[in-house]
């Protein structure tokens, strides 16, 4: 799916998705979420790293709040219309929206969010949907849904709690306070925080290291480590054995060629 506010560029094993609505600080809409879901499901086999970034002064200032008004956004699903359909309609709609975020967990490539400026609400949750995050020290992460009388609902609550713990996640979501890139690094939200003028370089260096690592090992590693978040020890050690078996058999087959 093509989208006017999403550009896709592929350079060998690296694909870059750029949120491209800088005049609205890359505000998000349901059509963008559909496009992101389709992109997550259609990453070519030879692409090893996906970078998600934002054009202009911000990564993403979150959902386009005009969607909560009766007028809505032209061509987009209105939250007012969604709510008028009752509980089943609301939950089905949210599940569709979530696919633009949760789909990246199942993507075989390692997903890196390059974050600068605002990463608010849905913007914060899109950064959390990535496997790794590189932020500018000027980045401003904030969950502002509670200030609207709502909760984060785009798949961001679990990775947030996994990264910073329940108490810190509750504080961030309940108060909506902004977290700088430097504080995000200190609390484990991001993997690196650098000055804005070094952000492209820092992201490129991380991507380069990921591409240099053995492809099959990294591809097996991503689901293995993701499963470790919830699995008990016996289950996880079994999954380690299974993953290693496949890699060793593949290695042996290459020796025999």
What can you tell me about this protein's structure?
By secondary structure, the chain is an alpha/beta fold. It folds into two domains: 6-212, 2-enoyl-CoA Hydratase, Chain A, domain 1 (Alpha-Beta Complex); 215-256. Helices cover 47% and strands 16% of the residues. It contains ten helices and nine strands. The chain has a six-stranded mixed beta sheet, with helices on both faces. The chain has a three-stranded mixed beta sheet with strand order 5-7-8. Helix 1 links the parallel strand 2 (14-19) and strand 3 (49-54). Helix 9 (215-228) packs antiparallel against helix 10 (233-256). Belongs to the enoyl-CoA hydratase/isomerase family. GO terms for molecular function: lyase activity. Keywords: Lipid metabolism, Lyase. It comes from Intrasporangium oryzae NRRL B-24470. InterPro entries: ClpP/crotonase-like_dom_sf, Enoyl-CoA_hyd/isom_CS, Enoyl-CoA_hydra/iso.
